[in-house]
Amino acid sequence: MKRRLALIAMFLSITACQSDNPYVASSAPLPPAPPQAANTLDMSAYPAAPRDYARYRNWAWLNGHLPAGTAWMDSAQVADAVSNGLDQRGLRPSRNGQPADVYVSAAVRQETRLRQVRDDYHDPYYGGGVGYGRYNGYRQGYGGYASVPIVRTYQEKVMVVQISMFDASTGQPVWSASADTVGSNDEASRSKALRQAVQQALTAYPPR
């Protein structure tokens, strides 16, 4: 009897496995691409080509305006410092109606910044152990030489120079950099600081 029941159960399980699956796989084709897709090129999907800075040889001021002057720096001084810096980079000013390859703008401003300076003060009586006292004797507890850090915070005025370049054909910005140097109150020192800041900013041109 038990054997018969086992055979019936086995038969029912085999029959269940051979029954039709109620779940049927189905798929639908993708919709066709729009007609304009064949004629549209998405440039954003491709990396930008490296810019050839060697083709920039002649420059002119952006919108034909010299850099703005300040209360402590004349506009002509700023223009002269930037022009000399560009000349050292192989960029010549456009002359006699010659079209410029790149337009240049420059700005100068003064900022007040906080700077910290750390001094290591050597105290001969700071530390542990036995040391020689100042009254011709020895004293217990402190001795040897130790460095005591002293941090000083102070304000200083700096001259900040910002130089930017724009492609003459597209108007797009192609390069920009800034640099700063410590300012001064006398005119000679300010002129020197301006030239130094311009040179520091232009060391990043052309990009490498």
TrEMBL record:
Gene3D superfamilies, per the entry: 3.30.160.670
Top-level taxonomic group: Bacteria
Keyword terms, alphabetized: Lipoprotein, Signal
Endpoints of the signal sequence: 1-18
Record domain DUF4136: where: 51-207
Protein name: Putative lipoprotein
Organism: Pseudomonas cichorii
